[in-house]
Design goal:
Elements lengths: L16 H5 L32 E5 L5 E4 L10 E4 L9 E7 L2 E6 L5 E4 L10 E4 L9 E7 L2 E6 L5 E4 L10 E4 L9 E5 L2 E4 L16 E3 L2 E5 L4 E3 L2 E3 L2 E4 L10 H10 L4 E5 L2 H4 L14 H10 L3 E7 L24 H17 L11 E6 L8 H13 L6 E5 L10 E6 L22 H8 L14 E5 L14 H13 L5 E4 L4 E2 L11 E2 L13 H15 L1 H5 L2 E4 L14 E6 L5 E7 L9 E10 L2 E12 L3 E11 L2 E6 L2 E6 L6 E6 L6 E5 L3 E6 L3 E5 L2 E5 L6 E6 L8 E7 H4 L2 E6 L2 E8 L2 E4 L5 E3 L7 E5 L10
Parallel strand pairs: 13-31, 18-19, 18-25, 19-20, 20-21, 21-22, 22-23, 23-24, 24-25, 36-42
Antiparallel strand pairs: 1-12, 2-3, 4-5, 6-7, 8-9, 10-11, 14-15, 15-16, 16-17, 26-27, 28-29, 29-30, 30-33, 31-32, 33-34, 34-37, 35-36, 37-40, 38-41, 39-40, 41-42, 43-44, 44-47, 45-46
Length: about 775
C-alpha cells in the first residue's frame, strides 16, 4: 500500500454576484492547491485561467460580452453580442490582490485590456496576453439590484458599450460614469459545457517492450488502453493476499471476487513469509502460492503477481527478510544474489502457471513505491525475472517509482481513507474532482517522474478502505470509496486495480507495528463478509467490462472552468469521455469526503459535437449530495442514436438478432431517454411517456418501474435494439454471468451471486427463499437432477 501525502483544501465558496467575479472568489492560479505541483501543460490546458466561467450581460442591451470572431489573437476586439453560450462569451476572474482582478476569456486565456494603455473616454477594450499592466486590472462595485459596475484601474473609467448602443456588434470601451445602464452588467454562471471535438490528444501508440502473444492470446497495450486478441479490454483487478486467508477458503472467496466483475486477482508475494531463515523456504498451507494461483484459474480469473522484493503491505520490513536487509532495494551484489535465489524458487513453484504456458499469470509488478532508488534497479529486477522464466505480457511499477523507460508500465495509487493519518485524514482529497494525473500523483502518491501521456491511465492501488491501528478508529463510508472509482473512470482510467478487494489477517510476528487484523473495510472483509460497497463496485465493473469497446475508444474532455480545489463547493464537478464521432459519456459527481456539498439544482450540460450541440438533459436536474454517476451521449444502438439519457448504462448483451442495452434509473433523475424525433419506440414491458420537442423524441420511464423498449428507425419494420431499464434497487442485484454458452443478465432476490464456476452460485440468508430472473431465458438448459 502507498503512503501518500495530502493537501488541505481552501475555504468555503462565496455566492454573491460581486464575490462570484470579484476578489477572493476565485481559485488562485498559484495558490495553496496548485503550488508545487508538476505543471500539467500537456495533459490539462484548461488551468490557464481560474475561477468559475461567467457570462457578463449588459443591463441596457441584454447582449453579452464577446470576443469578436472567437479569435485567440492579441488585439481582438471585445464587443457585445447575442448570447450563444460559446466559450468566447465566457469569462473568469483571477484575484490580483487589493480587490483588483484580471478578467480572462475562457476561449483564449487572454484578458480584458484597454488598448494602448489609454485612459481617455472612448478608448476601446480588446483582449491581450496578461502582462500585469494597470490597463488590465478591474474592480467590481455594486450598482444595486444584482448589477455591477466594472471599473478600470487605469483612469477609473467604467466598462461601457460604445454610444450606449443596444445592438449586437457594438464595441466595448471605457468611459466616465454617466449613470446609464449601458455601463451596468450582471454576472451569471455560464452554462456547463463539454467539447467533444476537442478531447485529450492521447494516441493508440503501442508501448515498447510490453504485451505480445502468450498462450495463444495476443495481449496488447497502448498509451491509451489494453486489449486481448485485438479487442479492447478493460482490466479490473482486486488485491487478495493468499497468506492472510485460510487456504481452504481461497476458492470460495475468489469466486465472490469474480462475481463482482473482478477479472484479475492481484497479490503481493511475501518473501519474509516464505524464507524466514536464509535458504529454508516454506510454500505450504497459507503460503502455497501455486495452489492460490490454480484456484484463481479455476474461478476464471487472471493473476497479477506483485513480486517485490520490497512490497510494503504493512508487513515487517516491507516483506524483506531481516537477513536480506543489508544493501536491499539496490543492485548490491549480496542483495541481488539473495533475490536471485528467491526468484528462482518463485519460478519453480509457479512452473507452467505463466500466461505463455497457458496459465493465468499475465502481469508482474516489480518492487513497490520505488520513489528514491536507482531506475536501473527496476531494469535489473525485470532481467532477473525473465532469466528464471518469470515471463508475463505486462511488467508494472507503482506510479511513484523511478524506472527506465520501456522497462515497466506505471500504475497509480489513490486513497480516500488514509490509515497512516489521524482519523484516516481530515483534508479534502483530490479524488472527487476529475483531477489531472500529475495533480493526483502529487497529492496521493508523492509525485511521478514520467510523462503521463506516455502510458495508459490505470490503477494498481485504488483504495477501498484502509488499515487501522491503536485507538485510531474510523468508518469507511461506501459512497466515498465508490465515488472515487467513478472519478477515476471519468478522468480516463482504463484499468481499475483495487487495494484491497478482500481483507485478511496478518501472521503473528510479521505485521510490523500494525495490528493482526487487515480487514481494510474492503468490499469483502477479513472473514469474507460482503459489504455494501461490493454491490456498488460490481455495478460499475459490469459496465466497464461489457462496454469496454465503447469506453476505451474515448478520450477525456474537461469542464473549461474545472474546480481545482477539492474543498470548493461553488460548481458542479463533471467531465466527458468521447470518441471521434462525439459518442461517449458525461460523468457528474456531487460527493466529497470531508467536505459538505450542497444539492445542485443546475445539472445540465451542453455537449458540442461535430454534428451539433446535445443538451443533457432537457431540463436541469437537482443532484443531491452523495450522488455520482454518468450518462450516455450519442450512443449508437445498432443504427439508432440514443442522443442522451438520464439513465446510467449497466451492460451490453450481444448474441441475438436484436442486441440489448441495459440501463438503470438513478432515484434522483427524471429517467428520460432522448432520440431523434422520427425514432419509433415500442413498449415491451411497462409504459413510458413520449413527447416530441424540436428534433428530439423524449421517452420518460415512471419511477420504480422495470421497463423494456424496442427502438427502430422510421420506415424500418424490424427493431434495431432493445433497451431494458432497471430500477436503482434492481441494478444492485444485477450480474452478467456466462450461462449455457452466452452472457446473460441475472437479477436475484434476497441473495448474491457469489461465484461463476463451475456453475453460477447463489448465497443468501439461512432459511430464505432465493429467486433469480435470467435474461434472455431462451436456450437455458438446467442440469439434470
Amino acid at each position: 500500500m502507498d503512503n501518500p501525502r495530502s493537501d488541505a483544501g481552501a475555504g468555503p465558496a462565496r455566492r454573491s454576484v460581486l464575490r462570484m467575479l470579484g476578489a477572493g472568489a476565485v481559485a488562485l492560479a498559484a495558490g495553496p492547491v496548485l503550488s508545487g505541483l508538476i505543471p500539467p501543460a500537456r495533459a490539462y490546458a484548461a488551468d490557464r485561467v481560474a475561477g468559475a466561467p461567467l457570462t457578463l450581460t449588459n443591463v441596457h442591451s441584454g447582449c453579452v460580452l464577446d470576443v469578436y470572431g472567437s479569435t485567440p489573437d492579441d488585439g481582438a476586439a471585445v464587443i457585445q453580442w447575442t448570447a450563444t453560450g460559446a466559450s468566447n462569451q465566457q469569462w473568469t476572474a483571477v484575484d490580483e490582490g487589493d480587490g483588483w482582478v484580471t478578467i480572462a476569456s475562457m476561449n483564449s486565456g487572454k484578458v480584458l485590456d484597454v488598448s494602448g494603455g489609454r485612459t481617455d473616454d472612448g478608448a476601446r477594450v480588446i483582449q491581450w496576453s496578461a502582462n500585469g499592466g494597470a490597463n488590465q486590472r478591474w474592480k467590481l462595485t455594486d450598482a444595486g439590484q444584482g448589477r455591477v459596475k466594472i471599473v478600470g484601474r487605469a483612469g477609473g473609467k467604467l466598462l461601457s458599450v460604445a454610444e450606449s448602443a443596444a445592438t449586437a456588434g457594438a464595441a466595448i470601451e471605457i468611459r466616465s460614469d454617466t449613470g446609464h445602464p449601458s455601463q451596468w452588467w450582471t454576472a451569471t454562471p455560464a452554462p456547463y459545457r463539454l467539447d467533444a471535438t476537442a478531447t485529450e490528444s492521447r494516441p493508440d501508440t503501442p508501448l515498447a517492450n510490453a504485451g505480445g502473444v502468450a498462450g495463444g492470446i495476443t495481449y496488447g497495450v497502448t498509451r491509451n488502453g489494453w486489449s486481448r486478441d485485438g479487442v479492447p479490454w478493460y482490466p479490473v483487478s482486486g488485491e487478495f493476499h493468499y497468506v492472510r486467508h485460510p487456504a481452504g477458503l481461497w476458492e470460495r472467496e475468489l469466486g465472490k471476487m469474480r462475481a463482482a466483475g473482478v477479472g484479475i486477482v492481484a497479490t503481493y508475494v511475501f518473501w519474509n513469509h516464505h524464507e524466514q531463515t536464509e535458504g529454508t523456504f516454506d510454500w505450504t498451507g497459507r503460503r502455497n502460492l501455486r495452489a492460490f494461483v490454480a484456484a484463481a484459474q479455476r474461478q476464471g480469473m487472471l493473476v497479477w503477481l506483485r513480486v517485490g522484493p520490497f512490497i510494503n503491505a504493512e508487513t515487517t520490513d516491507g516483506g524483506i527478510p531481516s537477513f536480506a536487509l543489508p544493501g536491499s532495494r539496490t543492485d548490491d551484489a549480496r542483495y541481488l544474489a539473495r533475490v536471485d535465489a528467491y526468484f528462482a524458487r518463485i519460478a519453480a513453484e509457479l512452473d507452467g502457471m505463466w500466461a505463455k504456458d497457458g496459465g493465468p499469470i499475465v502481469g508482474i509488478q516489480l518492487e513497490n513505491e520505488f520513489a528514491d532508488g536507482d531506475p536501473a534497479h527496476i531494469t535489473t529486477l525485470r532481467r532477473m525475472c525473465t532469466a528464471h522464466g518469470m515471463v508475463a505480457p505486462y511488467y508494472t511499477v507503482t506510479a511513484n517509482s523511478r524506472f527506465d523507460k520501456d522497462t515497466a508500465i506505471p500504475l497509480q495509487g489513490a486513497y480516500t481513507y488514509r490509515g497512516w493519518e489521524r482519523g484516516a485524514g481530515t483534508s479534502a482529497t483530490s479524488g472527487f474532482i476529475y483531477g489531472t494525473d500529475e495533480w493526483t500523483a502529487n497529492t496521493d502518491i508523492g509525485g511521478s517522474t514520467y510523462d503521463t501521456l506516455d502510458y495508459p491511465r490505470g490503477f494498481c492501488e485504488l483504495g477501498t478502505g484502509s488499515p487501522m491501528r491503536g485507538n485510531d478508529r474510523f468508518l469507511v463510508e461506501r459512497a466515498y470509496v465508490v465515488a472515487h472509482a467513478y472519478d477515476s473512470v471519468g478522468r480516463g482510467a482504463n484499468y481499475l486495480g483495487y487495494y484491497m478487494f478482500h481483507g485478511g489477517t496478518q501472521m503473528p510476528g510479521l505485521s510490523g507495528d500494525w495490528p493482526l487484523t487487515y480487514d481494510f473495510q474492503a468490499p469483502l472483509g477479513e472473514f469474507g463478509r460482503i459489504r455494501d460497497s461490493y454491490r456498488h463496485y460490481r455495478r460499475l465493473h459490469t459496465f466497464v467490462t461489457t462496454c469496454a469497446e465503447e469506453l476505451i475508444g474515448t478520450r477525456i474532455t474537461r469542464d473549461p472552468g474545472q474546480i481545482m480545489d477539492p474543498a470548493q463547493t461553488r460548481r458542479l464537478r463533471y467531465i466527458g469521455r468521447f470518441d471521434a464521432k462525439g459518442r461517449g459519456f458525461a460523468f457528474v459527481n456531487n460527493t466529497q469526503r470531508n467536505v459538505t456539498l450542497p444539492a445542485r439544482s443546475d445539472v445540465q450540460i451542453r455537449v458540442n459535437t461535430a454534428g451539433g450541440t446535445v443538451t443533457l438533459p432537457a431540463t436541469a436536474l437537482t443532484m443531491p449530495e452523495g450522488r455520482y454517476g454518468f450518462f450516455p451521449v450519442m450512443t449508437d444502438l445498432n443504427g439508432v442514436d440514443l442522443r442522451w439519457a438520464t439513465l446510467e448504462p449497466l451492460a451490453k448483451l450481444a448474441g441475438d438478432s436484436v442486441p440489448t442495452w441495459v440501463y438503470w434509473a438513478p432515484d434522483w433523475t427524471d429517467r428520460a431517454l432522448a432520440f431523434d424525433s422520427a425514432t419509433v419506440i415500442t413498449e415491451e414491458l411497462g409504459t413510458v411517456g413520449q413527447t416530441v420537442t424540436g428534433n428530439e423524441r423524449i421517452a420518460t420511464v415512471p419511477a420504480g418501474q422495470r421497463t423494456s423498449l424496442l427502438v427502430r428507425k422510421a420506415g424500418a419494420t424490424d427493431p434495431s435494439a432493445r433497451i431494458i431499464v432497471l430500477t436503482e434497487a434492481e441494478s444492485l442485484s444485477a450480474v452478467v454471468a456466462p450461462l449455457d454458452g452466452r452472457d446473460r443478465l441475472v437479477l436475484t432476490g434476497r441473495a448474491n451471486v457469489t461465484g461463476m464456476r463451475p456453475a453460477v452460485r447463489f448465497s443468501g440468508p439461512a432459511g430464505s427463499m432465493i429467486t433469480a430472473e435470467v435474461f434472455p431465458a431462451e436456450g437455458l438448459a438446467p442440469a439434470a437432477g
